[in-house]
Amino acid sequence: MKSKNNHKGILGIHHITAIAGNPQKNIDFYTGFLGLRLVKLTVNFDDPTTYHFYYGDNIGRPGTILTFFPWYTMPKGFRGTGQVITTSFSIPEHAIEYWLNRLKSHEISYAGPIKRFDDGEDNEQVITLYDPDGMEIELVAHKIAEERKEYVWRKGPVPEEYATRGFYSATLSLEGYERTADLLTENMGFSNTKKEGNRFRFEIKDKEKMIDNFYSNKEKRKLDLLNSPSSVDLICLPDTRRGYMGLGSVHHIAWRTPNDESQLDLRKRIVNTGLNATPVIDRRYFHSVYFREPGGILFEIATDPPGFLVDQNEDELGQKLLLPQWLEPDRKYLEQVLPKINIPSLDKFTNYSSSNQTDKGLTEREKRK
């Protein structure tokens, strides 16, 4: 790793973690329909009787990882302010028709495509759908997705040329956005680049300089850093009820940082703003620091290393339950109490059925447009 200078040390989204209900429906939807790879099958380290599913591209690059805790006894969440309300995936522009047909053939309700930030050249085309627990997902077609050829799961059910290319962004719903915007711009390296109605786009500034500062040429090639997702949208909804956590809710959003040194520097900067941040926590596949931003959303700063190949090779990813060493003595007990699931193999995927989809409509989204 190269040494740091004055760049902030956030490159974009590392992962997003949400709450699911039925674990098998979650696996079937995200692998069988959306075409993500189950990169890691483990447990919630803070609640080991609950699974922790990690989905992503072929090796689980930061910027592709969507994770779930299947807390199936929880009530349904409510989407409102103080939450990440939308998780957006990148797709190539030529893939729009494919995904519309795929949604129709699986009888999944959707809205769009609609244009967003339409300036005549660099617009986004957005398709909105919901997962089995009502979590809002967007498929965003845009030019840069064509360059993200490494951000796919090539052995999945979606042909490579149409597959999702990691995250595009996430949408944060806030009663007032100014303090969160200040945190992003003053302490996390973002810049406010676009505005459309009550939607504000923030993107990492000086991204190329920061990459040159922190990463070796080998790391740049391996992680495809220049094309990594590096934007987030804030929506200001002052008259909207505050959301609460439950099935279909995003638990937290994690921002990627190159290494332990940059993470500690960011933690110090966050604490100096008056926010409370946890000590560094070892999550085996990355190191984490958590804090709540001024609008109440749980943020995490997660390191790129060590990554998901630390305990499995690429062909083995997601094929068996992995436990941290301190939980291995409890393996037999945990395997008895965890729900039985069918793990997708590398050459066979459960076909996602329309009976797995949520019956949630699109009315909440229409209300905030």
TrEMBL record:
<feature type="domain" description="VOC">
    <location>
        <begin position="12"/>
        <end position="142"/>
    </location>
</feature>
<dbReference type="InterPro" id="IPR037523">
    <property type="entry name" value="VOC_core"/>
</dbReference>
<dbReference type="GO" id="GO:0051213">
    <property type="term" value="F:dioxygenase activity"/>
</dbReference>
<protein>
    <submittedName>
        <fullName>Putative ring-cleaving dioxygenase MhqO</fullName>
        <ecNumber>1.13.11.-</ecNumber>
    </submittedName>
</protein>
<dbReference type="InterPro" id="IPR004360">
    <property type="entry name" value="Glyas_Fos-R_dOase_dom"/>
</dbReference>
<dbReference type="Pfam" id="PF00903">
    <property type="entry name" value="Glyoxalase"/>
</dbReference>
<dbReference type="InterPro" id="IPR029068">
    <property type="entry name" value="Glyas_Bleomycin-R_OHBP_Dase"/>
</dbReference>
<dbReference type="InterPro" id="IPR052537">
    <property type="entry name" value="Extradiol_RC_dioxygenase"/>
</dbReference>
<keyword id="KW-0223">Dioxygenase</keyword>
<keyword id="KW-0560">Oxidoreductase</keyword>
<feature type="domain" description="VOC">
    <location>
        <begin position="166"/>
        <end position="304"/>
    </location>
</feature>
